[in-house]
Specification:
The structure is a single chain. This protein is mainly α. Helices cover about 70% and strands about 0% of the residues. It is built from 5 helices and no strands. The longest helix is centred in the last third of the chain and has 42 residues, at about 75-115. The model has no long low-confidence stretch (mean pLDDT about 90).
């Protein structure tokens, strides 16, 4: 298991990139120097709680996501895979139901014409 600092750094990098925000933009948005986020992501500095909240606000996430193990790239991939599997299963089920209904309707219509 990662220590809290490593987990924070990993999540910050991942979530920042997911939001399409570069280090310079994030540093500027929170009112820090140009290398501040770079220094965090390389482990040179660790931000105080107020700055963590500001970073989360810019990223439009909860501060806790920066420390969550399920925010790591591998867990996001696994969660996305599971969500996609559910969506695919639902679509396949709906397609099968629709096909069966159409087939049954067609067969019933044929049978009624023969009566």
């Amino acid at each position: 298991m990662n220590n809290i600092r490593d987990l924070f750094i990993k999540n910050l990098k991942y979530l920042r990139k997911q939001k399409g925000i570069n280090q310079l933009t994030l540093s500027t948005e929170i009112g820090k120097g140009v290398n501040y986020i770079s220094n965090i992501e390389t482990g040179i500095v660790f931000p105080p709680p107020e700055t963590i909240d500001e970073i989360a606000e810019v990223l439009k996430i909860n501060s806790s996501q920066l420390f969550a193990e399920d925010s790591s790239p591998q867990n996001v991939i696994e969660q996305t895979r599971d969500e996609l599997a559910e969506i695919i299963a639902e679509k396949v089920t709906n397609t099968i139901r629709t096909t069966i209904k159409m087939h049954v309707k067609s067969e019933v219509t044929k049978a009624l014409k023969e009566i």
